[in-house]
């Protein structure tokens, strides 16, 4: 084996981050604690220019400083993708097809792809990793996903947090976990890409359900019962759609991620649900939030997928009917009460 020259051993890992939201910003903050160089693509040129001048995101996590020696912002995605080892996807799932529409398989050839997206591709009803494999030919063994429990706002405050990195390639999961571990973040690898990714999608729907019930005036007691039932729904769904031996749904990448999203003040999906419970229409809630709640799109995808499997998922069904069939929230939760134990 050829010896690696000493001067090359400590070269920084080259990473492209696609997306300009709070989670993308938090990921960049974490990564820059380590030996990396980041090419950051943002959709708006005004944001790129602002970051170049002031070294922080003008729209999200505005108090989080960015290291200009390690982070360079780009408006042209082609430039951001050149010469990188990793590509991190942090664009909302509903906008991924449009964001990447001008790219080809060559742009991802030889690169490791990381999904930081906790949603599904609408209409296609596909996980982001499956869509990347189908459209751009990225092997599933060259992909991993980032799960919580972790909110971007607490990363910005450098509060102790934990991440789970899922991949069928445990060596890749460990490698990326090392890049995402720093003094206030502990990242742990698991060999379960699909379980982690599906759980990250469904927990957003559950958080919406929790928000709806809170908006309707239900208390913590009812929410605790609903969350425990939701974990059972997730298990039933995964056991049918993607069974895996030794999957521990009680670990932080599954149960922990569900809990923080269902209960936290920072959960945009819970906030969205709370607005629906208080009488907002879907459109008015989306306009007032000015942020994407992945669970809105995800519930339709999971509902459609489950039409093929017929898994008992009353919480998913209730949220779907409230959001897409305009069912009365109080009446729908009244029906849901009969399914919970």
UniProtKB/TrEMBL annotation:
Zinc among keywords: no
Top enzyme category: oxidoreductase
Reactions performed catalytically: sn-glycerol 3-phosphate + NADP(+) = dihydroxyacetone phosphate + NADPH + H(+)
Signal sequence range: none
Residues reported to bind NAD(+): 95, 152, 268
Domain Glycerol-3-phosphate dehydrogenase NAD-dependent N-terminal stretches: 14-172
GO cellular component: cytosol
Gene3D superfamilies xref list: N-(1-d-carboxylethyl)-l-norvaline Dehydrogenase, domain 2 (1.10.1040.10), NAD(P)-binding Rossmann-like Domain (3.40.50.720)
Family, as annotated: Belongs to the NAD-dependent glycerol-3-phosphate dehydrogenase family.
Name the UniProt record assigns to this protein: Glycerol-3-phosphate dehydrogenase
Taxonomic source organism: Arcicella aurantiaca
């Amino acid at each position: 084996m050829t010896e690696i020259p000493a001067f090359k051993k400590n070269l920084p890992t080259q990473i492209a981050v696609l997306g300009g939201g709070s989670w993308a910003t938090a990921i960049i903050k974490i990564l820059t604690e380590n030996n990396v160089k980041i090419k950051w693509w943002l959709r708006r040129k005004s944001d790129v220019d602002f970051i170049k001048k002031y070294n922080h995101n003008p729209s999200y996590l505005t108090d989080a400083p960015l290291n200009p020696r390690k982070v360079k912002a780009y408006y042209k995605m082609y430039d951001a993708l050149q010469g990188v080892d990793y590509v991190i996807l942090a664009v909302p799932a509903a906008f991924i097809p449009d964001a990447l529409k001008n790219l080809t398989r060559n742009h991802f050839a030889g690169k490791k792809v990381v999904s930081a997206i906790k949603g599904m591709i609408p209409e296609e009803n596909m996980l982001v990793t499956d869509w990347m494999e189908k459209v751009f030919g990225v092997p599933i063994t060259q992909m991993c996903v980032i799960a919580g429990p972790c909110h971007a706002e607490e990363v910005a405050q450098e509060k102790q947090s934990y991440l789970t990195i899922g991949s069928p390639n445990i060596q890749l999961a460990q490698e990326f976990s090392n890049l995402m571990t720093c003094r206030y973040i502990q990242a742990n690898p698991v060999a379960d890409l699909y379980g982690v990714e599906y759980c990250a999608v469904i927990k957003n729907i559950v958080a919406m359900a929790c928000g709806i019930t809170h908006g309707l005036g239900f208390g913590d007691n009812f929410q605790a019962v609903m969350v425990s039932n939701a974990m059972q729904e997730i298990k039933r769904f995964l056991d049918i759609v993607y069974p895996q031996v030794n999957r521990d749904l009680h670990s932080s990448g599954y149960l922990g991620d569900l809990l923080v999203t269902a209960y936290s003040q920072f959960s945009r999906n819970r906030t969205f649900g709370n607005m629906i419970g208080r009488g907002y229409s879907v459109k008015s809630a989306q306009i007032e939030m000015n942020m994407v709640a992945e669970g809105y799109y995800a519930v339709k995808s999971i509902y459609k997928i489950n039409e093929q499997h017929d898994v008992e998922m009353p919480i998913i069904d209730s949220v779907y009917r409230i959001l897409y069939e305009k069912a009365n929230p109080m009446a729908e939760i009244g029906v849901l009460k009969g399914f919970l134990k």
